[in-house]
Model the fold of this input.
Amino acid sequence: MATLKTTAPATWNVATDYTAQNNITLWAKFTQFADSQKGKHVQWFFIVLMVHGVFFLPLPAVLMYYYNAPAIVLAVTMVSFFANLIATMGGAGIRTALLFFAASIAIHIFMTLVFVL
Done:
């Protein structure tokens, strides 16, 4: 009887080349996830553009109008947007693109928390 075998196992666990499973770091998990997304680089490019365009680019207007945030919020948002755009369009590796995207998310969440709370 023929059985269906998959050739690509799930890659949610970090590689087992570590001596102890307790030494798995967040960086090791990130690099494994980023390496598994190498074939989806164009998809991540569009995700980065959509998230920045929909959520992060309007954020300075909201923070400056309603919460009296300084103009540096706009500068930080624009630098973050263009850094992500150049990194993904310029041929940077998937690790770099995802790292810039994660840093951009963290920066914008921090800015929102600072001025709203």
